[in-house]
């Protein structure tokens, strides 16, 4: 009898431990027909490319309740190309893959410890600079974002490897996020990436400072958006390292069920303008169709490296995205 009670207690304890842990499989499938008027390009079916809304991927994440308000977690995420089924790294300009070629989970591979103090993460993931732009940018940080095309460097590569990142709790809409890369992981010097974000009601404001990837100088940008109800307005001041400097301004509105967005981004030093026009049509809560046109100015390299052709280059994408 005693042994039976001990066995039942052990089973109950195991069940309680399992109940405190969770693992989730998730992902995004995005595929469409894309084309540009750049030299040598052709109409094609594409997935995870510049004129797709986002990169197709699958991932797995999990958490474990450690007790006392603490949780441990992990996240692994890999790129998937639906046009040919390949698992390979991103080719989107200004969104470079993991420099250690061939890494399967090139989009994310990190662990977290979270609690009332916020969250501490260690590994490779989207960095504070990206989250800053995503807080106000109107396309939802799409692959064809004009901000990324014109000022991709200010986003510090979008993802950072070997990063120690702290995210504060949400304090009445305010969140602080700080990423650090140690000198031994960054080549010649350590790097820092600070994001300060506020989102409450219709207003969102975000500021970023970073000197990531060991580049000379630093990047800064301040952006905001405001939702007036039927119309959303966004703008930003952007000051990357080097000679570039400029701004972004755009608007978004919904006509029926279709969301229309226009975003213009200007490098005032190079006198170069990139812009994107986007339409989204929801098919369900997790699936939408989209059409987008991105114009890359000829004065400097951008999404299509237009400077090599010395002409404006336009890209078009028509596709569908499903989140699971």
TrEMBL record:
Q: Please give the Gene3D superfamilies that the UniProt record associates with this protein.
A: Porin
Any idea where the Porin domain is?
7-297
The answer to whether UniProt assigns keyword Transmembrane to this entry is yes
Q: Name one GO biological process term.
A: monoatomic ion transport
Q: Which residues form the signal peptide?
A: 1-19
Where does this protein chiefly localize?
A: membrane
Binding partners and assembly? Homotrimer.
- Recorded protein name is Outer membrane porin protein 32
Q: What is the lineage of its organism?
A: Bacteria, Pseudomonadati, Pseudomonadota, Betaproteobacteria, Burkholderiales
């Amino acid at each position: 009898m005693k042994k039976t009670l001990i066995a039942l207690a052990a089973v109950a304890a195991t069940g309680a431990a399992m109940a405190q842990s969770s693992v989730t499989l998730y992902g995004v499938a995005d595929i469409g027909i894309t084309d540009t008027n750049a030299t040598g390009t052709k109409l094609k079916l594409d997935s995870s490319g510049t004129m797709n809304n986002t990169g197709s991927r699958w991932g797995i994440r999990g958490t474990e309740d450690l007790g006392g308000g603490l949780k441990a977690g992990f996240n692994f995420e890999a790129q998937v190309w639906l046009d040919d089924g390949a698992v390979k790294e991103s080719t989107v300009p200004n969104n470079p893959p993991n420099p250690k070629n061939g890494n399967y989970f090139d989009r994310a591979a990190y662990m977290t410890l979270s609690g009332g103090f916020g969250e501490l993460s260690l590994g490779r993931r989207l960095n504070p600079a990206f989250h800053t732009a995503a807080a106000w940018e109107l396309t939802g940080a799409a692959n064809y974002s004009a901000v990324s095309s014109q000022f991709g460097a200010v986003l510090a590569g979008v993802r950072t490897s070997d990063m120690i990142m702290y995210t504060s709790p949400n304090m009445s809409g305010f969140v602080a996020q700080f990423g650090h890369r140690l000198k031994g992981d960054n080549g010649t010097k350590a790097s820092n990436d600070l994001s300060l974000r506020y989102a409450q009601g219709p207003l969102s404001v975000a500021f970023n400072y970073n000197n990531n990837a060991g580049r000379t100088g630093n990047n800064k940008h301040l952006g905001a958006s405001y939702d007036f109800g039927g119309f959303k307005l966004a703008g930003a001041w952007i000051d990357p390292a080097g000679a570039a400097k400029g701004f972004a301004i755009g608007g978004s509105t919904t006509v029926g069920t279709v969301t229309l967005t226009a975003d213009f981004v200007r490098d005032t030093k190079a006198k170069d303008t990139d812009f994107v026009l986007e339409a989204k049509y929801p098919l369900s809560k997790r699936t939408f169709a989209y059409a987008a046109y991105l114009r890359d100015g000829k004065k400097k390299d951008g999404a299509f490296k237009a400077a090599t052709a010395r002409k404006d280059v336009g890209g078009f994408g028509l596709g569908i995205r499903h989140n699971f």
